[in-house]
Structure formats: structure tokens, C-alpha cells
User: Fold this.
Amino acid sequence: MKSIVQLLIHNLHEGSITLPYPERPAILGAYRGMVQNAPEECTGCGLCAYVCTSSAITVQRAADGFRWSYDPGKCTFCARCTQRCPKQSLTMMDTRPPVYQQLGGLKQFHDVKKKKKPAVPPSNPQPEAAN
Amino acid sequence: MQITTAILRLLIFPGLFFAVPAAWFFLYVERKTIARMQQRIGPPLLQPFYDFVKLLGKESPKYHHIQDLLLKLWPALSVAVLLAALALIPVFPSKGGFSGDLILLITLLELPSIFYMLAGFTSRSVYGKVGSMREASLSLSSNLLFLTAVMMIAVSAHTFRLSELAVPAASAARWLGVAAIVLCIPAKLRLNPFSTSSAEQEIYSGPLTEYSGSDLALWELAHGLEWLALSGFVVSLSFPRTGFILADAGIFAFLCIALVVVLATVAAATARLTIDRSVRFYWRWSVALAVVFLASAVLFRR
Amino acid sequence: MKLLENLLNHCRTKSPWLFHMNSGSCNGCDIELVASIAPRYDVEQLGIHLEGSPRHADILCITGPVTYNTLNAVKTVYGQVPHPKAVVALGSCAASCNAFAGSPTVVGPLHRHIPVDVYVPGCPPRPDAIIEGIAKAAELLGRTERKPLTDDDLKDLEPCAGLCEAERAEGDAPCK
Assistant:
């Protein structure tokens, strides 16, 4: 338990520990930053939107595809979406969301159009009429 | 003192044009010392100047009639009174003064504290009232020590003239008196550990809660000028004079800044005491030392 | 006069005084704000000073989704900050109510009641993000011409009522 005089001498000796303004401390591993989706893997199942605690992720399905949108301004960085995603297409980046000035300014989305299914002739025989 | 000398002293040196940048410099030294003691970088050199100019550009809340007049009057009067006190301080004692000017100086140094209290009561805010009551209790308790110390210094030198007091005597009475005055300075300047009257977390800035704009700029300036006046008063009573003007001025400035650094270090090292503990601290020292001082004042009289 | 105005704007950027208000937050953002005053991040190097009274401040930092109980307090404090002022919505609760959207005691994100200049996202935002947000607000104070808002301007904020519910229903309806 140091006395205050020892503490002051120690502080003067050590010098300042402040990070001068634009500098930031290094991000350590396993930092939960913004959510990132890999469009090739995403199937639009919507489980991430279902478990999202703050409705930051929404999935809108249409006839020919879906739109996955994410608003970092609403996100609470809990990583439930990343844990739940069945295809592991969601990851958390290690950058924090930037400061913004317009409402909804950070919202991002991507559209995925469903691939057209090739025409397949029915292979199973028709059920025979009961005779 | 001639009227022209008085006006020159009030406006040029050590008046308005010199004292205001010097006050800003002292505020910078205080904040930078506290920052360095806490392992921080602290504000840049011109920070008090930026604060002052920014506050001049902010709007003031609108009050009515006599309240508006009084609220604007208190900070303006504080600054004026402190400039007058600075004009009296004997840096170079051979420049003359008048008899009894020690009493005038003590009065002028006391007035800003009274105006601070009055500002709190005039603002009619509950936080202002609490802060002013705390300032009143603290001022009552620390002034006993301050005034008996000043009285002992004056009686032991057999004069109330500042120009004669400015020649330091190597007597125990002088040094004890100066030490007691330095002990009272944190209460007058509202520094830690005696900063309860302007406690931010508890009473939202106390007496100055309702102030903004140019009036607040004048309050900050008054705080800087108070630093200058009190440290100048203490140093002028205690530093050895060489007789060369430049050397004297240099030593004076150095000792003033050293006093600011010491008091700011004490402010960084201590926590804020509650009002009952602060008052009790000063009453204990006052009672103990006042006995010594008054006895020595009686013994030293011719 | 132009020189004086430039000087005034420069000083406004260099000396932003802060007032912090909690409008119902969980205190996580408040802790991070206070951490940015600590020696490691030290906002005082930018001249920022945490003030005790809203009348002394330029920048109002508000955390938390505005709850029903704190609504009047938020509006009163906003009115007490003298012009020119800037408002920083700290944390994702102040920007969008976060997990509390749709709750009966939460009256919606901050921009529904007072005009917001800078949003600092995060739950809680890192201290360096908070400092960046405050520095951006300080820059806005010095750069743009800020006029005092009238009651009519403040009334215009009301049409954003129910933003969070509407947004969820339609997908991503932009805020008008």
C-alpha cells in the first residue's frame, strides 16, 4: 500500500501514459466488432434476424431472392447471430463501428437473387389409378 | 500615490494588460501540474485563452430587473477588485505606497469570496444556496487563521505599510505567519481538499450553476487573478531582495509559479473533504495558532 | 469582423465543454465516458472538460433510450444548454433504443425529442469512439453556423413517431 507521496513520485517518474489523440489502443483477439456476412454462404434462412436482440438484422424475402440488412447503429454486439448461423457465414470483424451523423447512416445490406432451378422431368412414376 | 501612477498600475502593469495573460498562464500551470501528477498529458498552453474567448461567444440566460443587474455585477466587481489588489502588491518595494495599505490589500483579497457567495444567493437556485452556505462556513473558519497570521506579521514588523513589510525579516514570526497564510490559500481558491463549495458531482457547480456566457468568462478570469494575487502577496512577503530589478522580477515570478505548482500538487494528491471536516480542520489550526499569534503580537508590541 | 469570427470559431472547436446526462441507460456507456476522462485516454488534451452544470456546457452527451420518466428532464436540460450547442447520442440505445425498442416505458430514441448531431454507436462504445464523437461535435460547433432552434423546429421532430416499429414492419424505411 503506497503512500500518496510515493505514488506522486512514481507518477512523475513514469511520465504520461496517455494515448495522444488520434491514437487507439491495439485490439486484442476475439474482439466483437461489426457483423460481416459472406453473401456466397448466406441462404436467407433468417435465423440471425430471429435471435437478434435488438432487431439490427432483418431479412426480407421476395419471390426471386432476399435482402439481408444490418444496422451497426442498432447492434448490441452480443454475437448471437454469429453463433446461430447454420452456414457460418456471419463473422464479427475486429473493427468498431465508426461515428456517424445521419440517422441510419451505417446501415448496409446486400441482395441475393435466387438461382433459377433447372427443369427436371418427374422421375417418380405416376400413381396408378386404382382399378 | 499619484493618480497617473495609479491608473498606469491598474491598467498596464501589473494591471489589466499584464495580469490577464499572467492569470491565464497560472491557470494553465495549475491544470498542467494536476495532469502530470495523474500521468496525463493535460491541456495545451493556450487553453485558458480558448476557454475565455469561447465563453464570450455563448449566450447568457435572460434574467429580469434587479436579478439581471446583480448577477452581472458580481463577476465584474470581482475582477475589478482583484485588479486593484494586484496593483497594490509590492514587488519592488522602493516604488512607494501609503500607510495602512496592508489592510486595504486584505480587504480587497477577501471581497471576491464574498461576491462568490452573493452570486450563489442571487441566482435563486437551490444548488447556488447550498454552495454559498458552504463557502460562507469555510470562509468564516479559514479567515480567522488568515487574519491572525497577517496581524502577527504586521505587529512583529511594527508597520502596516506594504513597502516596509516587503523587506523580509528572518524572524520566526514572519515565517510562521507566511506558512499559516499558505495553509489558508486552498480554502480561498477552492482547491482540493477544500473545494466543497463548487463540488461538481454533488451540487452541479454550486454558486455558479446558473451562470453562462461572458459572466462565466469573468468568473474564470477572477479565479486566475485570485491565484496571481494570493501567490504574489505571499511571495512578496517572503523572498530576499537583491536590489536589481530584473533579478528581483525573475525570482518573484519563479517563486510564484513554484507556489502554484506546490498547491496544485496538494490538490492532485488529496480528495475533497466534506464541509464539516474542512471547517473542523481550520478551526483546530486556528485555535492552536491564534493563541501563539496573539501572544506573540502582545509580546512584540513596543 | 471576419477575423474575430474565425477566432471565435477556432476557440469553440478547441474548448468544448461537456455535460453528461443519463436518460435511463444501463450505465455501461456512462462508465465508458468516465473512462475516457481517465489518464489512459485523457480528453483534456483536446480541451474537453466535464462540467457540473448544463449552463456551462457546449456539448450535451446523452446516454440511454429516453424513458418515460426522464423525458421532461431531457427536454429541460436541452433547453438549459446555451446556444451554440451540439448533442451527441452516446451508445446504440440513444441512437435506436437497441434492445428496448417497443417497450411501453421507453419513449423512443433521442432524435424523436431533440435534434442530434453525432451518433456514437456501440454497446458500450469504446472510449476512443466516444472521444472521436466528441471531437466531431466540437468541429461542428466551430464550423457550421448554428442558429438557436425555435419551438416550431422542435415540433417538427414528432413525425418520427413509431420509427422502430414501422421500420421493422416495412424492412428498412428511411427516416424522413
